[in-house]
Automatic annotation (TrEMBL):
Higher taxonomy: Bacteria, Pseudomonadati, Pseudomonadota, Betaproteobacteria, Burkholderiales
GO MF, one example: shikimate 3-dehydrogenase (NADP+) activity
GO CC annotation: cytosol
Family to which the UniProt record says this protein belongs: Belongs to the shikimate dehydrogenase family.
Residues annotated as the enzyme's active site: 65
Protein name listed in UniProt: Shikimate dehydrogenase (NADP(+))
Enzyme class: oxidoreductase
Subunit record text: Homodimer.
Residues the record lists as binding NADP(+): 126-130, 216, 239
Gene3D superfamilies: Leucine Dehydrogenase, chain A, domain 1 (3.40.50.10860), NAD(P)-binding Rossmann-like Domain (3.40.50.720)
Task of the protein: Involved in the biosynthesis of the chorismate, which leads to the biosynthesis of aromatic amino acids. Catalyzes the reversible NADPH linked reduction of 3-dehydroshikimate (DHSA) to yield shikimate (SA).
Pathway info: Metabolic intermediate biosynthesis; chorismate biosynthesis; chorismate from D-erythrose 4-phosphate and phosphoenolpyruvate: step 4/7
Length: 272
């Protein structure tokens, strides 16, 4: 029986074992998937111990996504672009680090929410690790505009510098929250503000009529950001679909089969 796990600290709350068990049952794959809490200063040792036990791959969550970059012996293009790894694949040639977060976000927006990114005006709030991981997949869908807004403008500008060539002339730009101007078709909250029930300081005018407001966080009830967006006419979507879709991308990487996500997502939604 092939073995997989998710590393984190803390990790008890993780829904990943439930998601991957559902994917395995659906696709007829025989595997086990468990939670593993690695010591904050002992991630690499925990990974190598799991490999020694016969582990085939692992997901990586907070706070180890940067440690996983160092553990990997090779990085995919999207992991290198993100500067973070959330999926490890243990192969005969060594440990491959990947990042499926951005692909998961885009799949949830395009396939599940039915919102196209091509030709749209996109606003990304935040320029930290969560934002870094999604810029490349968003640009691959050719938005008309991608504005990255952040408290520290220099951090957002560094992201723009990294990805500007991929977006084309003038497509990607950075600004502070106070300098936001214009309305957007898709507004993505990649900040951690929702964890502390805070609202990124954005004006209500950022939401174009019928815009989709997307929060990478999820909870039983809408986050403060989604409540604010809903009050100003936006359609709302939380990050639960992103969680399921990034897991599906990792499962496909490991097993070579793409699982269907709709029923798994609905099951998790019903449990919230």
């Amino acid at each position: 029986m092939d073995r997989y796990c998710v590393f984190g600290n803390p990790i008890a709350h993780s829904k990943s074992p439930e998601i991957h068990a559902a994917f395995a049952a659906q696709t007829g794959q025989e595997l086990t998937y468990e939670k593993r809490q690695a010591p904050v200063d002992g991630f690499a040792a925990a990974v190598h111990a799991f490999i020694a036990e016969g582990g085939k791959g692992a997901n990586v969550t907070v706070p180890f996504k940067l440690d996983a970059v160092k553990v990997a012996q090779a990085l995919t293009i999207r992991a290198r672009a993100a500067g973070a790894v959330n999926t490890l694949h243990f192969t005969e040639d060594g440990i491959v680090g990947d990042n499926t977060d951005g692909a998961g976000l885009v799949a949830d927006i395009v396939n599940n929410a039915g919102v196209q990114i091509i030709g749209q005006r996109v606003l990304l709030l935040g320029a930290g690790g969560a934002a870094r991981g999604v810029v490349l997949p968003i640009l691959e869908h050719r938005p008309a505009q991608l504005v990255i807004a952040n408290r520290t403008v220099a951090t957002a500008e560094a992201l723009v510098e990294q990805f500007a060539a991929l977006g084309g002339e003038g497509v990607v730009s950075a600004c502070g929250y106070a300098d936001l101007d214009g309305a957007f078709d898709l507004v993505i909250n990649a900040t951690s503000a929702s964890l502390s029930a805070e609202l990124p300081p954005v004006p209500a005018s950022v939401f174009a009529p019928g815009a989709l407001a997307y929060d990478m966080m999820y909870a039983a009830s809408p986050t403060v950001f989604l409540q604010f967006a809903g009050q100003h006419g936006a359609r709302l979507r939380d990050g639960l679909g992103m969680l399921v879709e990034q897991a599906a991308e990792a499962f496909s990487l490991w097993r070579g089969v793409q699982p269907a996500t709709a029923d798994v997502l609905q099951s998790l939604r019903d449990q919230l």
